[in-house]
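Hey all, quick one. A colleague (J.T.) asked me to put the nicotinamide-adenine-dinucleotide job into the tracker so the inputs and the structure tokens live in one place instead of scattered across chat threads. No bug as far as I know, just bookkeeping. Sequence used:
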Amino acid sequence: MPTRQPRRAPLAGAGRLAVLDPATGEAFDEAPDQSPDELDAVVDRAREAWRGWRADPIARTTALLAAADAVDAAGADLAPLLTREQGKPLAESSAEVARTAARLRYFAALDPGPRPITDGRPVRSEVHWRPLGPVAAIVPWNFPLQLAAAKFAPALAAGNTMVLKPSPFTPLATRLLGSVLSAALPEGVLTIVTGREPLGARLVSHPGIRHVTFTGSIPTGRAVAQGAAASLARVTLELGGNDAAILLEDVEVDRIADRLFWAAFRNCGQVCMAVKRVYAPARLYSQVVEALAQRARSAVVGAGLDPGTQLGPVNNGPQLARVERYTARALADGARAAAGGHRLDRPGYFFAPTVLADVPPDSPVVTEEQFGPVLPVLPYEDLDDAVEAANDTGFGLGGSVWGSDLDRAEAVADRLECGTAWINHHAELSLAQPFAGTKESGVGVAGGPWGLYGNLSPFVVHRPEEA
Ligand code: NAD
């Protein structure tokens, strides 16, 4: 097995952050490594910009629609840069840019409007919605643009301003996006800051911030909630997942295998809502393992910019080391690699798409979030046991049930403890639906009108009908 050591987090000279191409492991550009001391001025600017931005909803809508057009127009620059620093295939980066623009358009069109309350009393109560103020946003490296847009589109549409920090592994496309948007948005409405920790920690605990919206891992989410508690800023946390897919006895394996495979391996498995473990009926177990393994063996792995690539590298060295660690532990625990099981002997952070069979159910690759191109498949005899195993976790992001009888599949899906459950699909999302993890997978709601209200505070006017 190859022994090349993964690099640690990006490093560069003082004040600069080196950005590595995960397809080579080499630095190809750099970004500012901003000092937390710069945040006072940045947050002050966001507060000043808020006055004008909150005042005129029509001007806001116009600016956000112009911003969406600017993103579309910059797609040919944004997508390759995103692929270069993140690793995903170019077509997926282009789709991410398109979703960024779509999100701006979706939220620009939402109007929270005042709502009367009628409860039989001789008073007229009306609920209005007010923006909160400057919002801090922290984004991970798996979908840098799409997740940034999931934060700034509703926050700005609601009339807030934002200071947004991307991951130090993927600052470049977000910085470019920031400059593209600055052509359409007034100064200070959206500011991108980049740098190593403690930049994020200082941002979320800054006294001028009124709402913190974070996407990332559960441990960091805890630290963010603690940081925001200092100023009692409102917190929205979108955290990790360990989604289970349960296959039922009547599933047609050949029919669903492609969909199931890509629900686990898209973006190299670095999706919060990827299928991260599969429970298959014992009778179908070998067939399911082989169908997935065959797809893992034939997936085209390569640099995201190479035409034909279906799976890029893992984004960064520490993440690759984590994927290797989980896999090695599972193999040591007695699992069998039906496909893959090792990193690839080539430069960059490539790991062979891996399907693990005969994995002990308590192996960390099953119980924790591996967040990489590795999928454990577990057999079950009794469906109740599979549902119990799927729910026996602190995670509660998503889950799915696969079978031919849709009513039966839905009845099983109804028993899953998570925020979204799919039938014969996984991780298909609409801009209009709420997105919320249960248990330790999240706090608050993003997506749809709920995502807009998450960025607003109710203001009630209560007056009698007569003086
Ligand atoms: P991470 O928690 O390590 O980092 C996320 C972000 O937080 C980065 O920008 C990082 O620089 C910043 N950060 C680190 N320490 C901080 C601190 N003390 N205060 C403030 N910010 C800090 O996560 P990651 O490795 O970048 O991303 C992978 C994780 O994100 C996975 O767990 C995945 O499931 C999760 N994720 C969740 C969703 C969701 O919507 N639920 C979506 C995508 C990713």
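Adding what we noticed when we looked at it: The longest strand covers residues 123-131. The domain at 16-239+439-461 is CATH 3.40.605.10 (Aldehyde Dehydrogenase; Chain A, domain 1).
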